């Protein structure tokens, strides 16, 4: 295989010796560097490359094979643990994890009089198991599960039942350990870590270390092999899965990969500006990125959102504003956006919303009296997936079926992904991907919002101003921006003040600021506004086909996610006695959406 010309930084890494930490910016060719590093080791050296996930593993296997490196083994943390633990103990693995209702049955959890207490407790036991399995601790008692909590209601519930939740966590783990029940993927990773394995390798290359589990980091650090850890601190976006930035937890010699071959200097400058926002949170060391990309193609286009809700909304925009579209594609498959990890579906939540309990398949959702009941459960559990489904159902109501049907009809399979006129992805699902053109949804944290939050909470010691979470919010925008190879369409609210104009960075006037602008174009539409009747029908039944579009033309923020700032403003003007109709007009919402939000905030009074 012909070698490509290497940079001075890559050469320094390849010629290094001893344990090494590599800070690699997005698109810096770290995989190429790792392969060259492996190729430069002795021919009889035993090398292990730890990939971030299965898809990265498969791609790495191909690349190492093409290079002729037969002495390099490619694994993920879980595939490595699986081979050492599952076969040895003859365990059976529960592929999809346990549903909350199953945990209730396994542990015999029953209600104590408090509404849905058994399900809430089971939910927290499930999360505590995940927290423990991904930690480097030896005992459940070594962790404080409350450290993971943010929501006040959820924290209050857990405090009341902490001993019961902790004991349930230990019992569930013990049942898996004894093989009485199927084990989860996280369990065999934990079992692997606690077995203190001595891996038979001379070199271990640990990739995407900024989002590694503490359990796998513990295994890695204890090995006698020469260790190389690679990652980008500013791409850490999985702390909600209890991932840790392993780069900060090693004291190896450090080398840099600061040249990106993916994008140009203009994109690099924007990315570094976004990173500099972290100075509003803490002192952040300046980052230098040398953009060496020369991409000119505009073939593969992707829309990237921070949230599932934001992505769904923009997918609807796209197929209605572009009636000739034949193919779209969702990273991770569109169905993955409709189901929670524990099995509940968007359709279950919709059936609950309509009072059709006989159509609900999920036992937990089916046990709820109504949608408000489910929302109360969510507040006690911090179940973000169910929370998103509730928000979608509250915003779209019975149009959900038609919307999803329309999106599925246009969705192409993995084998025809290249035919898609637009790829849709959340930031998390776009990790490791790159596209010719990227369109960002306007649901990311802006610098203005960050400053406002800091000012609002400057004297607040309650923890509401969560520095770690806000740091990760900035990382999400950085990751999204750096997926592009050529052009970036970015909402103007997300562009740093006084950032210079660029032919590759197109500032988009979103619908919020000008309803005559298409969210997927920087140019104003010519002629009069398109009539809803001429737009592509996206929902059934027919008489409701254009409800979403019509409402958003008259109410600019209809069906948009509510932000904390809007919630605050809503309560303020409502408390001042402003009529609902005027509030709706002011906020660009429908009256129904305003009332629904006030109820969700426990701030609506029927007699007013």
UniProtKB/TrEMBL annotation:
| Recorded superkingdom | Bacteria
Q: Show the PROSITE patterns listed in the entry.
A: UVRD_HELICASE_ATP_BIND
According to UniProt, the reaction catalysed is: Couples ATP hydrolysis with the unwinding of duplex DNA by translocating in the 3'-5' direction; ATP + H2O = ADP + phosphate + H(+)
Organism of derivation: Niastella caeni
For this UniProt record, give its keywords in alphabetical order, as a comma-separated list.
Answer: ATP-binding, Helicase, Hydrolase, Isomerase, Nucleotide-binding
What Gene Ontology terms for biological process does this UniProt record contain?
A: recombinational repair
Task: List, alphabetically, the Pfam families matched.
Answer: UvrD-helicase, UvrD_C
Q: Name one GO molecular function term.
A: ATP hydrolysis activity
The residues the record assigns to binding ATP are 24-31
Q: Where is the signal peptide?
A: none
Q: What is this protein called?
A: DNA 3'-5' helicase
Which segments constitute the UvrD-like helicase ATP-binding domain?
3-264
- Its EC number is 5.6.2.4
């Amino acid at each position: 295989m012909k070698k490509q010309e290497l940079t001075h930084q890559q050469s320094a890494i390849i010629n290094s010796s001893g344990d090494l930490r590599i800070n690699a910016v997005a698109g810096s060719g770290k995989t190429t560097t790792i392969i060259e590093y492996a190729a430069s080791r002795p021919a009889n050296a035993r090398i292990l490359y730890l990939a971030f996930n299965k898809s990265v593993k498969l791609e790495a296997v191909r690349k190492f094979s093409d290079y002729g490196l037969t002495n390099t083994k490619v694994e993920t943390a879980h595939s490595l643990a699986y081979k050492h633990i599952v076969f040895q103990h003859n365990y059976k693995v529960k592929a999809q994890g346990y549903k909350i209702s199953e945990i209730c049955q396994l542990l015999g959890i029953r209600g104590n009089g408090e509404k849905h207490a058994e399900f809430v407790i089971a939910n927290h036991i499930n999360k505590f198991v995940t927290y423990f399995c991904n930690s480097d601790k030896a005992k459940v008692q070594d962790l404080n599960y409350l450290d993971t909590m943010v929501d006040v209601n959820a924290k209050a519930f857990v405090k009341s039942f902490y001993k019961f939740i902790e004991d349930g966590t230990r019992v569930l783990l013990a049942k898996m350990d004894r093989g009485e029940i199927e084990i989860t993927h996280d369990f065999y990773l934990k079992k692997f870590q606690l077995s203190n394995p001595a891996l038979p390798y001379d070199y271990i290359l640990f990739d995407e270390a900024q989002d590694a589990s503490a359990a796998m980091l513990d295994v890695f650090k204890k090995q006698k092999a020469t260790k190389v850890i690679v990652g980008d601190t500013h791409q850490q976006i999985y702390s909600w899965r209890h991932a840790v930035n392993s780069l900060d937890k090693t004291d190896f010699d450090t080398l840099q990969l600061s040249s990106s071959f993916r994008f140009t200097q203009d994109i690099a400058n924007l990315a570094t500006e976004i990173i500099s926002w972290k100075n509003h949170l803490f002192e952040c060391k300046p980052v230098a990125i040398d953009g060496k990309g020369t991409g000119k193609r505009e073939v593969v286009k992707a829309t990237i959102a921070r949230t599932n809700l934001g992505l769904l909304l923009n997918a609807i925009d796209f197929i209605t504003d572009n009636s000739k579209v034949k193919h779209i594609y969702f990273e991770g498959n569109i169905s993955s956006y409709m189901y929670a990890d524990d099995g509940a579906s968007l359709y279950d939540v919709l059936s609950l919303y309509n009072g059709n309990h006989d159509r609900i398949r999920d036992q937990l959702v089916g046990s709820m009296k109504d949608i408000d009941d489910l929302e109360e459960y969510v507040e006690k559990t911090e179940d973000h997936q169910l929370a998103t489904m509730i928000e979608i159902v509250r915003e779209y109501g019975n149009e959900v079926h038609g919307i999803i049907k329309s999106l599925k009809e246009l969705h192409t399979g993995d084998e025809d992904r290249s035919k898609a006129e637009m790829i849709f992805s959340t930031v998390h699902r776009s990790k490791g991907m790159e596209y010719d053109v990227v369109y960002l949804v306007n649901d990311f944290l802006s610098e203005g919002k960050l400053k406002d939050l800091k000012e609002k909470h400057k004297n607040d010691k309650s923890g509401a101003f969560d520095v770690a979470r806000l740091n990760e919010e900035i990382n999400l925008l950085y990751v999204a921006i750096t997926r592009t190879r050529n052009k970036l369409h970015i909402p103007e609210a997300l562009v740093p003040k006084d950032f210079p104009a660029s032919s590759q960075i197109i500032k988009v006037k979103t619908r919020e600021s000008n309803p005559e602008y298409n969210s997927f174009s920087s140019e104003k539409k010519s002629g009069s506004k398109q009539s809803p009747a001429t737009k592509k029908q996206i929902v059934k039944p027919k008489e409701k086909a254009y409800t979403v579009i019509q409402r958003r033309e008259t109410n600019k923020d209809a069906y948009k996610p509510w932000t904390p700032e809007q919630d605050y403003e809503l309560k303020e003007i409502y408390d001042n006695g402003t009529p609902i109709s005027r509030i709706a007009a002011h906020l660009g919402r429908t009256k129904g959406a305003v009332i629904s939000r006030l109820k969700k905030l426990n701030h609506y009074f029927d007699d007013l």
